[in-house]
Write a structure and sequence with these properties.
Number of helices: 12
Shape: elongated
Radius of gyration: 24 Å
CATH topology of the largest domain: Rossmann fold
CATH class of the largest domain: Alpha Beta
Distance between the termini: 81 Å
CATH superfamily of the largest domain: P-loop containing nucleotide triphosphate hydrolases
CATH architecture of the largest domain: 3-Layer(aba) Sandwich
Structural class: alpha/beta
Length: 257
């Protein structure tokens, strides 16, 4: 009789779409003699809530299209002497996302810019924020494609409704004359509404050459700099050439023979 009641309870929980409570029921019953009725119920409810929250985070991460395996758990805090560690740890409270402020991460190739931006993106997903990650070239290509069917405003509006937009790898790209205007329209739509993280390996002076329109580029930079946080690791070391997994080059005095 007891086994039948347990099975019936599990079936009823699944019917109510409480499958995580159903899966936790056996464990809860094993410990029931040590708990009050309220503690027993609280445990089951907590299992359901935790599982729902985890699935919700997984969906937000998937929609964000964040690069994999870039979290603060696997970030080498001691490698980069140019990094202001205290500043970065303060940014982890995500208050800049709540207040719709930009974050500009400056650094040469391999200094960890994308890892930092992505790790903050993961934390934002875990905190319940809507996030999108784009490489600059892919973002501009997508916006340019919308010109064909006049859906540019729709795409920009959709992006601007995110809580956090990450634009990675602002660098020299194959430019089209429409790119600067499209980027300005997007940045303007997000201004003081959507927090933006930008990673770039070139100086702001070089953005004009990279994007191809001086006046529009200056407007873009002006909007991004307003109330912005800046992480400057341009003098930093490269993980790719100096990190623990970098290829070991032969010593110049080494005789291979």
């Amino acid at each position: 009789m007891k086994t039948l009641l347990i099975q019936k309870a599990k079936e009823d929980l699944r019917t109510l779409r409480l499958k995580d409570m159903a899966e936790a029921l056996d464990t809860a019953l094993d410990n029931a003699h040590e708990q009050s009725h309220l503690e027993f119920l609280s445990y089951l409810v907590q299992q359901q809530v935790t599982a729902v929250q985890m699935r919700s985070v997984d969906r937000r991460v998937q929609r964000a299209q964040l690069p994999r395996n870039m979290h603060f758990d696997n970030f080498d805090w001691n490698f980069q002497p140019a990094l202001n560690v205290e500043q970065l740890k303060n940014l982890q409270d995500l208050s800049f996302v709540q207040s719709h402020q930009p974050l500009l991460i400056l650094g040469k190739t391999g200094t960890g810019k994308t890892h930092i931006a992505t790790a903050l993106g993961h934390q934002a997903c875990e905190a319940g924020f809507k996030v999108q990650f784009h490489r600059l070239h892919d973002l501009l290509t997508g916006l340019y494609a919308t010109l064909a069917d006049d859906s540019t405003d729709e795409m920009i509006s959709r992006i601007a409704h995110q809580d956090l937009l990450i634009i990675d790898h602002v660098h020299y790209i194959r430019n089209k004359s429409e790119y600067p205007t499209l980027l300005l329209d997007l940045i303007s739509a997000c201004h003081e509404r959507t927090s933006i993280i930008i990673t770039t390996s070139i100086s702001f002076e070089e953005w004009t050459q990279a994007l191809g329109n001086a006046s529009i580029t200056h407007e873009i930079i002006d909007r991004l700099m307003h109330r912005a946080h800046v992480i400057n690791i341009r003098p930093g070391r490269s993980y790719r050439t100096e990190g623990p997994h970098a290829p070991q080059l032969p010593h110049p005095d080494h005789d291979p023979s």
